[in-house]
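anyone seen this seq b4? input:
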Amino acid sequence: MEKQRQRKSFEELVFSDDFMFGKVMEDPELCRDVLECLLQRPVGELRELQTQKEYRYTADGKPIRLDVYNKDSEGIIYDAEMENLNHKSVESHELPKRSRFYQSSIDIDFLSRGNSFKLLPESKILFICTFDPFGKGLSQYSFTERCEEDKALSLGDGTSKIFYNCSYKGGDIPEGLGRLYEYIETGHTGSDLTKRIDEAVIKGRRNEIWRTQYMKEWVVLQDARDEGREEGREEGREEGRLSTLFLLVDDKVISIEEALKRSGLSEEDFKARLKEYLEGVKG
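predicted toks r here
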């Protein structure tokens, strides 16, 4: 039960949380300004902005989602991903392989629409990390395809992958980018852009539609985790399912009556288990 409560309440979400990041970046103007701050160059008008864009290329049909997918007026595709450690090791995030997969997913999606590979657009994969992704102390790590024998020779395939280290404390980066890093790290608003982001976050926390979507996504995630558990742990899966129902009741997302119907328990057993759960959470 304690593990269930490690998930943040909707009111606690900040810009560096995947859900809030995606929702705030649905604003085309704000999204464009964030991209321009990260890339330190102008970005064309965003004409194809999608958050949580899904690709279904895994063997078992489960979707892989990109946090913020954009295509600008110049035909350049951007995928911006927010990365937190979430009590895991840097290695467990497998960022290099994930960047490779995201890149290939974008290309396959383009080609599957009947386009020629000769028309593959320029694309940039951006990982905004709240930690140093490679442990080298750099403010960012930019990768493009280059010849090993002649570093001056670029492959020119139009792809690049950039990993931003928001934990960087040096003063040798553009002020606007430094302020964005600071905001992501501490929540301090030291620039016009970060103030606008923070205002969008505060407004977002009052959005009941977003709140419901957040809870639904969390339930889907819990269900997916249950499906991935090894066979023979039915009791553990059932406990997790009931805890999810109790949490939804506690957060007033669903009524006690609806949770009772979904639980499959008798009314007496359900109320006893719910009481035990609430006492454990609030105790």
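The longest strand covers residues 64-71. The chain has nine helices and six strands. kinda curious what u guys think
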